[in-house]
Amino acid sequence: MRRSVVAVVTLVVVTPLALAACSGDEDKPSPAAWVGASSAPPPSGSVPESGSTEPGATGGAGAVSLTVTPATGKKNVPVSTEIGFKVSGGKVTTVALKDAGGKAVSGELREDGSAWVPSKTLKTSKKYDATVTAVDAAGAKKTVTTSFTTMGKAGKQTGTGLYLFDDRTYGVAMPVVVEFNPGIKKKDRAAVQKRMFVKTEPAQPGVWSWTSSGTQAYYRGPSYWKTGTKLTVRIAVGGLPTGSGRYGDRDRAATSKIGRSFIMKVDNKTKKMTVVQDGKTVRTLPVSLGKKSTPSSSGTMVVMEKKAATVFDTTAELGPTEGYRTEIEYAQRITWSGQYIHSAPWSVGAQGNRNVSHGCVNVSPSNARWLFDKTLIGDPITVRGTGDKLAAGNGWTAWDMSWKEFVKGSALPVSAELAAAQGDA
């Protein structure tokens, strides 16, 4: 299985090959959003309230000057629209948005105060009325209203996916992974990234980063997530212009939790895996890695999928002579190209001594089951010393680069302080 090469992108919210040796034709895990995901809270900000009404889309009485968008009478507005404003001599304190039936639409202010974001995608071909109130230092208010009509259903859409499920617990290295089909071009990524919200509790810094093809974006911090972290993610791209006349298919969202720290480290020199849980070494076990013709990749990978039983079948790619079909137990995928941690009873004698696998991390049946029972999706595994470097994008490779390199992938500016942060990578 071959995947696109990955680079990396950022938004911080304070209050996101060649045929592999083991299996070249295993299906990748589906993004959670493709099988349904509930909506998540809008970006953090003040709670909107209703305000007094004054006609028009601009106002400038007293010291407060206020301009609101979309402009009054605007039609064919994307259903992803935000209520934007420019204000001087005061600050916006309340925003109220209602549909044609008078029903209030929830939402919150952006942290930089530049706009108000509805908590859900607006409905197509509907009229909306917005009321925005700004207040100056003396308490004088300025209220402006605007009305607009949203566009009909988009003819061309960008498919999206989110690799997170609601109410699941993930490992400390779980990046927030978003997919786009077709990929987002460079010139359009900043606008899309501005609608990708991640909130962490407790608060931890983070950066978004895109693949070179724009088909994926990762969100992670300088260090692994803290145990117990709550991740609230909203990829608010439903109806958002994504370039080339396309619009995002729908919002994607999930609320998940980060579990205990469980880190696997494999050294080709010793042919051993060291398992560290919550900072303490809990087990060291022998492994066999890829033989010379099918080497394992060196780098930091993440458990992406777990199957108690599966079949590795490479006959379609390699033919009946070179290919093979083998039943496998306790398989944990770590690359898209088909490298796994898995039970290999046939190589127990080689484990700890020599490499005989087709690129996978072979362990004994008992060790494979022990690992399988302990790991979570998102647990990191670092392999060193094989001489074959992990290709960017061959799996969730967000941690297989330095933080300095990671932040370069952002389509939005990254603060100097955040870019200089020190962490695990």
Commentary on this structure:
This protein is mainly beta and 425 residues long. It contains five helices and 29 strands. The strands form six sheets. Strands 15-16-13-11-19-18 form a six-stranded mixed beta sheet. A hairpin with a 5-residue loop joins strand 9 and strand 10 (141-150). Mean pLDDT is 87; it is low at 1-21 and 32-56. InterPro entries: Big_10, LD-transpeptidase, LD_TPept_cat_dom, Transpep_catalytic_dom.
Summary, kept brief:
With 425 residues, the protein is mostly beta strands. It has helices spanning 186-193, 315-322, 365-374, 403-406, 416-419, and strands at 58-59, 65-69, 74-77, 83-88, 91-99, 104-105, 107-109, 115-118, 127-135, 141-150, 157-162, 169-170, 176-181, 196-201, 207-210, 216-220, 230-235, 241-243, 246-248, 252-258, 262-267, 272-277, 280-286, 299-302, 305-313, 325-333, 340-343, 361-363, 380-384.
